[in-house]
Write a structure and sequence with these properties.
- About 50% of the residues lie in helices and about 10% in strands.
- By secondary structure, the protein is α/β, with parallel strands linked by helices.
- It has a single domain, classed as Protein-Tyrosine Phosphatase, Chain A.
- Strands 1-2-5-3-4 form a five-stranded mixed beta sheet, with helices on one face.
- Strand 3, helix 2 and strand 4 form a beta-alpha-beta unit.
- Helix 4 runs parallel beside helix 10 and helix 6 runs antiparallel to helix 7.
- It is globular and about 50 Å long.
- The two termini are about 15 Å apart.
- The model has no long low-confidence stretch (mean pLDDT about 95).
């Protein structure tokens, strides 16, 4: 299938359903979407998004990110929006890293590895992830998850969804790595470079920029390994931290699996 939803001003928008599961079933197409932020969505983009029957939007961004780049939604959108302001009194770790970094490839890679190890346990993510899964269980329509670039926070949550559904690990990783589309990197690189330069006073090299903008298998593995170390298993994390018990899983599976 063609996963990518081609839009003019919204990057990394794609369907992350339609994968076979270990139980012999299949995630349905057209119920699970992921993307970058929609602040630069064009009118044509909004019309395309309106055609997807999205009932729930999960905005994983911090309050400051939402204020800097307010989401555009089509006028008739009447679905549920899931967001929170938890932890907004804390410094944005990405901006803090940029200010103190040498902007090398290694610095961005080490930052992202550390970020992935910590992200599943942040109070704001636990709240958002848990509310997302319970919304999936009840939504009458598709669910869209997004952050700023649609790669890290979004990538973790998509992988957790795939795990719950029984998608094989190879497909979970393959879907995660679709973010590394060279066309996305090429189109977004100037904007990201400018944003980094505004904070640091200098721009990173193109190779370092590619690391900052991309994803690597080790990042997702760092998150899943940290979850297993702290909770014993991903399933135990889903239930114990996010509140996705057997009843919720049954509802989610009934909605998502064909």
């Amino acid at each position: 299938m063609t996963r990518q939803v081609t839009l003019e001003g919204v990057e990394n928008f794609r369907d992350f359903g339609d994968y076979a599961t270990a139980g012999g079933r299949r995630l349905k197409k057209g119920l699970l979407y992921r993307s970058a932020a929609q602040g630069r969505a064009t009118q044509a983009d909004l019309e395309t998004i309106a055609s997807l029957n999205i009932a729930v939007v999960v905005d994983l961004r911090r309050r400051g990110e939402r204020l800097r780049d307010p989401a555009r939604r089509y006028p008739a959108f009447a679905g549920q929006i899931i967001e929170n302001d938890l932890g907004d009194d804390e410094e944005d770790s990405w901006q803090a890293h940029i200010r103190g970094s040498d902007l090398s490839e290694a610095s961005f890679r080490n930052y992202l590895l550390a970020y992935y190890r910590d992200a599943p346990f942040e109070a704001r993510h636990i709240d958002l992830f848990g509310r997302y899964f319970h919304a999936v269980a009840k939504a009458d329509g598709a669910v869209l998850i997004h952050c700023a670039a649609g790669k890290d926070r979004t990538g973790i949550l998509a992988a957790l969804t795939h795990h719950l559904a029984g998608v094989p690990s190879a497909d979970i990783l393959a879907d995660y790595l679709l973010t590394n589309d060279p066309r996305r990197v090429a189109s977004r690189a100037p904007m990201v470079a400018n944003a980094i330069e505004e904070i640091a006073g200098r721009a990173p090299t193109m190779n370092a920029l590619k690391v900052a903008m991309g994803v690597e298998p080790a990042y997702l593995q760092a998150a899943l390994s940290a979850i297993t170390e702290r909770h014993g298993s991903v399933d135990a994390y889903l239930e114990g931290a996010l509140g996705v018990n057997r009843a919720a899983r049954d509802l989610i599976e009934a909605r998502l699996l064909g």
